[in-house]
Amino acid sequence: MSPTGKTLHWAVDKWLAPTPAMPARVVRFCRTRMRRRCVCIEAAHPGGLLSIFFFRHDDGSWNVFPPAEARPAMAAWRMAR
After folding, report:
1. What string of DSSP letters covers 16-66?
2. Is residue 49 part of a domain?
3. What total of structural domains would you count in the chain?
4. Is 22 within a domain?
5. Would you say 54 and 8 are in contact if contact means Cβ atoms under 8 Å apart?
């Protein structure tokens, strides 16, 4: 489970608010270029069908935005004399 408490179930409830009359369903599982998981979930609403991609972050949380990619970094080393 995510230490932040942002599970996939929590994110779907927050963004799609499924009900027994209008349930949400998983449409697609995928992985991004950086081998991160994402899930497309859709739910019927009075205005039409709504689909949202959810992305899993390194801390285990699920969000509607993808995680930031690791950027190159430089490190300074001090040599012992």
Report:
1. H---SSS-EEEEEEEE-TTS-EEEEEEEEETTEEEEEEEEE-TTS-EESSP
2. yes
3. 1
4. yes
5. yes
